[in-house]
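Q: Basic leucine zipper 9, please. Structure only.
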Amino acid sequence: MDGGSWWYGNVRTLNPVMSQATSISASLGLTISANHALESESDSDSESLYEVEGVPYERGNRSIETKRIRRMVSNRESVRRSRRRKQGQLSDHESQVERLKGENATLFQQLSDANQQFSTEVTDNRILKSDVEALRIKVKMAEDMVARSVVSCSLGDLGLAPYVNSRKMCQALNVLTGLDLLGSDAFRGPTAGT
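A: Structure for Basic leucine zipper 9:
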């Protein structure tokens, strides 16, 4: 086995379900073991092999392996920071979703209330229009009655109509002319001049 492949196999044997603290301590343990082995190195040629966790390792690969361990620890920290950042973003998005759901419910309730009020106003408008139409009919009938009374009184004065009927009609005419029938134009709607 060469120096790179045994290390790769050693690193990958860690349990991925392990907690982050155990993972850090294991990688720090590797770093400490490697550093301890590096510090206890002597200059003799016979000690060209070192053991890191029971696995022999050559002096030339020492700096590469140390860098690899440091990079691995750094990558784990980076992944941890990234997870924390993503978790924070997820929490922000979840709170924003809840806020928007609340706003949506409020706006939906306002729309429902506005629709109900609109329906009520449409019904009231229909009732008012029918009342106006009924009043127009009554005004028209009153105008017709006044017009007939005027004709009747005129005929009665000329002696063409019976006295009793014309007398009563003339009295009714006097009462009706006291009313403001010209003010009933408001029930007819706008005139062409306005």
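A: Brief note, in case it's useful. The mean pLDDT is 71.
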